[in-house]
Amino acid sequence: MTELISRLQNAVGAAHVLDAVEDQAPYLRDWLGKYHGTALAVVRPGSTAEVAAVMAACAAARVAVVPQGGHTSLSGGATPDASGQAIVLSLSRMNRIRKIDPIGQTVVVDAGAVLAKVQDAARDAGLLFPLSLGSEGSCTVGGNLAANAGGVAVLRYGVMRELTLGLEVVLPDGRIWDGLRALRKDNTGYALRDLFIGSEGTLGIITGAVLKLFAQPTARATAFVAVADAAAALKLLRLSRSHCGDRLTAFEFLTSATLDMILRQIPDTRLPFDALPSAAVLIELSDISDEPTLAARLETTLADAMAEGLVSDAVVAQDGTQAKAFWRVRESVSEALVREGKALKHDIAVPVAEIADFVKVMDAAVDAALPGIRPMVFGHLGDGNLHYNLMRPLAMTEDAFYGHGPRITRLVHDEITRRRGSISAEHGIGQLRMSEMPLCKPPLELELMQQLKRTLDPHGLMNPGKLLPNV
């Protein structure tokens, strides 16, 4: 492979082709430490033209390419396998904010731009890029696009696919598709953009994007609300929508067990209630009105909910500091889970109206299958995305618990499939769930995806071992 390494060095500069093991190490292990791989080289191009040159060289040598952004994947989607025969293509140097259009409310960015940087650039222009994730300080736009990221504001603004107008993509053979159009209406054939969003780097390398911006809210109102269960939370969601319309920006649900875990594992978190509730909802409204008016609307909504018996307690944040403290609880879930121990994690989606029944049925099913198992359930209730995580029974070792993992996960995913839901709402399939795709996708749907993959990537060089089996 000496000739390939030489071509890669000529394309991006020798300093940006890492072939020493110690230099490659940060790129070869996923964020959770679950997946480890090796690579022929780690290549760090600085422009779309350099990405194209790298792809052309790899295509000629029939060498696979693993795209990598902020390296925050939770499904092993950006980690190479152990063969050492692929290159890792890191977009970390491609981090420019190319252009902001305040009139058209768009921003053009490199795929390696960190999400928080895009948010800051929009804010500096008096606008908002609404995608908000716990990893926003390190995840990149390219990774967000590859996984069709969601986050806490999907209820109002939608997922990444809905926030994107155009893309720039380098194809597996090195050709560049320039689809960087800032058009909100364009009815000229197939929406090629949507093929690459959510494709997890298996069809090409996203190098740039045109993203939608929005008016920057001038007022926010946040409340922590105690409810009896998911059924009550769904009724509160319906009431909140009818009272608040599209001001309803976030509606996050957490069970009592999840809240208790956060309080135990993250010492600086606090709940605004006298006692641990059976479940809770974190509600946020945003608008371009004044904050007292928005807070009054939220208070009226919660008063009506309390009168209907949907809410047992509620606290509206009195200032930004208290609102941040409320969000600190929600944002601490992932950290608390890591401290609590290994979990069977399920990033699932079901029709919103079925969430309460799903949780009730699933909790009973997993407890019958493994008595003492501890569901830690939280998520974006308004868009149907739940993180249905399961912790080991307290008397069981982690190794023994993981031995039951395939059986328990099959129970969860079979129920999801029965309800026409999704086994991956926002984390992606990666290598974590790839083998399960034939179990949850109709054969024709899987066949069509495989045909698209073979058409765009006939030699199977793009992110092999991810998303689709048997290609």
From TrEMBL:
All residue ranges annotated as the FAD-binding PCMH-type domain in the record: 35-216
Keyword line: FAD, Flavoprotein
Residue ranges of the TM segments: none
Top-level taxonomic group: Bacteria
Record PROSITE patterns: FAD_PCMH
Pfam families: FAD-oxidase_C, FAD_binding_4
Stored InterPro entries: FAD-bd_oxidored_4_C, FAD-bd_PCMH, FAD-bd_PCMH-like_sf, FAD-bd_PCMH_sub1, FAD-bd_PCMH_sub2, FAD-linked_Oxase-like_C, FAD-oxidored/transferase_4, Oxid_FAD_bind_N
Family under the similarity heading: Belongs to the FAD-binding oxidoreductase/transferase type 4 family.
UniProt name for this protein: FAD-binding oxidoreductase
Organism in which the protein naturally occurs: Bradyrhizobium denitrificans
